[in-house]
Write a structure and sequence with these properties.
Strand content: 15-25%
Helix content: 25-40%
Shape: elongated
Number of helices: 3
Structural class: alpha+beta
Length: 191
Amino acid sequence: SGANEEHEPVMQSIRIGVTPRRARGPYGVEIGHRGFTMLELMAVVAVIGILAVLAVPTYIDRIVREQVKTALALADIAKPPVAASWSLAQTFPVDNAAAGLPAAEKIVSNYVSAVAMRDGAIHMTFGNRASSAIGGKILSQRPAVVEDAPIVPIAWVCGNADAPDKMKAFGENRTNIPDSLLPAECRAQKR
């Protein structure tokens, strides 16, 4: 019995978490088993679930905005002919052929299935590997100019954004992508 008492602290450290024996606290008071109840764990899982439900749509919107932003660069091939036409004749090409561009269905990328020119405005139709949220939808980029000063470079108005002060945007805005899925530079400014 004396030998067991001598090794008791060592045995207790080995038994922690292994045996259901209750530990003794100060003054010999028994301390119950400590841990999480099933209810507490379920509450934690519920909170994590609620946070996930709130975060996932925001994350998906961010991915779609990145796809739109990446696709904007494809319109750059159509901008030089528009700028040249404006600086030389103060007119805009009426379509892809007038701008010296291939047919709309031939100008494609990972997220864009067509790029069409209409009266200087560039209309990008989303498709291919684009998110289903924007598949088949259109984003327009319109030229904005100072009408009586053709030397001033064209500013490009993306989507629902307003033309810069003292400039006029030309061409139809066919953008039908919700503002929440557009990058900041393509959204209408709230005043």
